[in-house]
Amino acid sequence: MTLQQLEYIVALDAHQQFVLAADKCFVTQPTLSMQVQKLEEELGVLLFDRTRKGVVPTAVGAKVIEKAREILRTSQQLREVVQVEKGELVGDLRLGIIPTLAPYLVPLFLVELVERHPQLRVQVEEMQSADIMQRLKENQLDVGLLVTPLDDRQLREIPLLEEPFLGYVSEGHSLYPQATICPTDLGAPGLWLLQQGHCFRHQVLNICSPSPVADSQPFAYESGSIETLKELVRRNHGYTLVPELSVLSELDNPMVKRFEAPEPVREISLVVHHGFVRLPLLHSLRELILAKVPARLHAGQAGRKIRWR
Length: 309
What we know:
Layout (H helix, E strand, L loop, with lengths): L2 H13 L2 H7 L4 H15 L4 E4 L2 E4 L1 H27 L5 E7 L4 H15 L3 E7 L2 H9 L5 E6 L6 E15 L10 E2 L17 H10 L17 H10 L3 E5 L12 E4 L4 E10 L5 H14 L11 E2 L4
Parallel strand pairs: 3-4, 3-5, 7-9, 10-11
Antiparallel strand pairs: 1-2, 5-10, 6-8, 6-9, 6-10
Helix pairs in contact: 1-2, 1-3, 1-4, 2-3, 5-9
Pfam family, one: HTH_1
InterPro entries: LysR_HTH_N, LysR_subst-bd, WH-like_DNA-bd_sf, WH_DNA-bd_sf
Family: Belongs to the LysR transcriptional regulatory family.
């Protein structure tokens, strides 16, 4: 049994195709197939069911793969402990970030992070919160940037920002003349929402609660983009809620409405698996991000945290 064989079965579980798994492991498909078969022969069990539709772990295979992930994580940590002791920030940084945060935060820090640590290979991927959490546990991501708290004992949260929710209101809407808004105002008709699955959507609905969300529009449109919602408001009618980072350049726009104190905020954290050992890298990333956003958005302010779970 070798670490390489364990990497192969983990990749095969993730991609459920021999060709794709081999490609991700930078080996030929026959090589990967042969090594998986050798491991099965050594263990005396079938790890995968091979079907025309794909490759699926057997019941015992799923248990072996889970242990393989733990072994590979520990092996990776051994190398990283040595790197930390040497003061090196090298290797891969696989970062997952939620779509309602990525367009506004990633451009602020990504280039400088790479320039500051030239031996670091940074991979950034947008995905929803549940996927980030799962991939952190499966050692497919190193760091997540997402909304917390998560209430998951396997994951460690490092609070970073407390970002206020703001109203974005069209000129023709009844809320437009107001200097500020409050949660009870969100029962007014014309509220645009993100699609199902976005934590931001759940938080908006939690702000509205217990007021019902009025639905008097003759059509429905749910977007996966904050920018699309803003454009709908600008060009049509209605209103939506947006995170403050998305309107930093237009805070003097009369369409932007703050909530009455205490403002509802979303807590944004760096999230890692509890086994994560490259703490200097985590601290460097945290300091870099905090230096790029207004101090009023730093964690520890007096906002009302809105949960998404």
